[in-house]
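Q: I have 181 residues here and want to know how they pack in 3D. Can you give me a structure?
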Amino acid sequence: MRSASTEHPSSERPQRPDAPTGVPRTTPLTALDRVPWDDIQDSTGSAAAIPVLLNGIAWGDAETARSAFEDLRKRICQFGFVVEQATAVTVPFLWELAKLPQVTVRAQIIELLKAIADARQWESTAAVYPKLLNHRENPVVWERAARQAVRARRDDLGRLMSDEDGDIARATTELARSLGA
């Protein structure tokens, strides 16, 4: 079992930056408090930092959002194909961020969703090393749950494919192809 990170003690509450002026504070990110992040693992240990990163993506300036996104990506989908326990519970928040017009890394979020939908690293490993399926922490289950979480929101594809931003439309079209939608 991985040891938990001490970078963000569980007694700290993630702080939400103020919304930019003129941007309504109507985001599903308010549901972040419903997830037991301290009890879930990401690639660094405890996933307690994920709410802070998601808020940085949602409300930060372009540089803050990019930095938070890169950190989040490494925590939930290392190397673009290795998912973690925290990936599946993070996916619905990624879908919501992809739809928020003020988010500056929307295309990258959609590309990350595609990477998660395509992830088969743990299943491939288990095919060669079946004992992996007997571990208490079963990453094959995490991988399947993460892929299902991406597929569960595929109804959002149409809106994103028609986005005026060409990068978002392209990334969404690739995700739709990957999902067979």
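Q: Anything worth noting?
A: The two ends are 37 Å apart (CA to CA). Residues 1-25 have pLDDT under 50 and may be disordered.
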